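Entry for the shared binder. Reason: the reviewer on the internal report wants the predicted structure included alongside the sequence.
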Amino acid sequence: MGIREGVIPCYLAYGIFMQRGDVVAYLGNKEFDVTADIILNMCESKNDYYLFISTENVDKESYITELNSLFAIDGNIDLHGSRLNNLLTSMQRWYRALPLCTRNVKIKPDFIEDEELFKISIAVRTVLQKVEANPYEVIFNELSMALNVENNYLKTIEKLRQVKHLMEDYLELWLDELARKTRMVFCEKKTDEDLHHILKQWYEGQSEVSKLRVSSNKVTGLMSFIKNLNVYDDREVVRRLIRVIMVYMSKIGLIILARCIFDI
């Protein structure tokens, strides 16, 4: 007994709906959420598509729940795909919101002690910055491979949490290191005094002739910045100092920037 072609999509949709595991449609190597249009396309071009139905288990569901919590999927808006697609979207949004210096770092800086964790963070970054990533493959395969904990959901979450903290803290760690090196530039002796006072002391130690001479050239922005500095947080001081140096890229500015960042 045959089945009329018109009802096949209805049976297929019902069968997919009744599955308790995640259902993913593949066209070649590309994943697609199973939508009404995809089901119709599958019926019309049955040789081009195939379905993958994952088995449901407690460990996998717990893993998804932990990832949702880690990347605050409930706080994301404009999520209209499957739960795996929405989860990957949330993870990629988190990654794209990181500072540029975090997303571009390639060589481990001295202020990061855990070399293995840094290497893993680079591998995770490579996974999350893919433009056309397959959600199921990323979440259940590529992430664990990048973290060197294949087929272990608990260790994947543990390592991913460490990587996430490292990447979120990187900018502040970088600013702290720049503050430390800036102290070395403006103060010969080792000190824990805040950067505000060190810069002020350096400025006050300059001769009036030197101040007048410097004020006649492009470095006036740097000297004016120090003279009028009214913030005391080292990280904020460094942020503002970098902006001043980048605007007035004079010889002295280049030297300070190079010494702070490249340790030369």
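Summary line for the report: The two ends are 82 Å apart (CA to CA).
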